[in-house]
Amino acid sequence: MLKYIVTGAAQGIGFEIVKSILLQGNYVIWNDINQEQIDQAKAQLHHLGLYQFSCICADASSDEFLDSLSILIDETPGTLAGCVCNAGITTFGDFWSYTKESLDHILKINIKGTFFLAQLVAQKLRDAGNGGSILLMSSVTGHQAHPDLAAYGMTKAALNQLAKNLVIDLSPFQIRINTISPGATLTERTLSDQDYIKEWSAITPLGYPATVEDIANAALFFLSPLSKHITGQFLVIDGGWTSVGIPPK
């Protein structure tokens, strides 16, 4: 049995990735910062007959989370094979009034949290000597400008470059690292906007936003042997939106 780690996984894309990995018969260690959402996610997984997981309620960028994760990696069943660094936040704000506090917060979660999670998992994979796959969660805003998302887009672009740089460090140990960049995706958060589907369907060349299953399928590809010769790359999943550059209204 293989074992994977997924952060920010009580809802949306992260939850779908966890569910998909479990349905393949693997073990998953996952986390979220919201205990109520964790409880709801656990109930959904149990309803599907899925029990081979552990979860941690913690900020994925905190030392406490990394310490707990390190222990669970060693104590839970399965061979560690990969990680999806999915935890992140989105903050909207125009460049002229964006605050230092907001920037510190988004850098801590999106950059520091991802960096040190990848570092911990890579160390565990290196020590085990079996190779593996680390997947970073970027965004179309890391490839193309979007109104009021300068800070967020900057952090997501940084993750694409991090994956490229870490090819140097990780490849000698057969550890692959890539990023996926979702575009408009139907999640609990986006569906709270009653105009979301209509607006993004109108400006997406394929005519509809992605589902969480679309993103999870790409994640599973990068975690699997099907992508065994792919590293340092990014995959944009946006129905063609970044190709035509139509901005949202």
From TrEMBL:
One of its GO terms (molecular function) is 3-oxoacyl-[acyl-carrier-protein] reductase (NADPH) activity. Keywords: Oxidoreductase. Its EC number is 1.1.1.100. The keyword Nucleotidyltransferase does not apply. It comes from the Bacteria. CDD domains: SDR_c (cd05233). Belongs to the short-chain dehydrogenases/reductases (SDR) family. This is 3-oxoacyl-[acyl-carrier-protein] reductase.
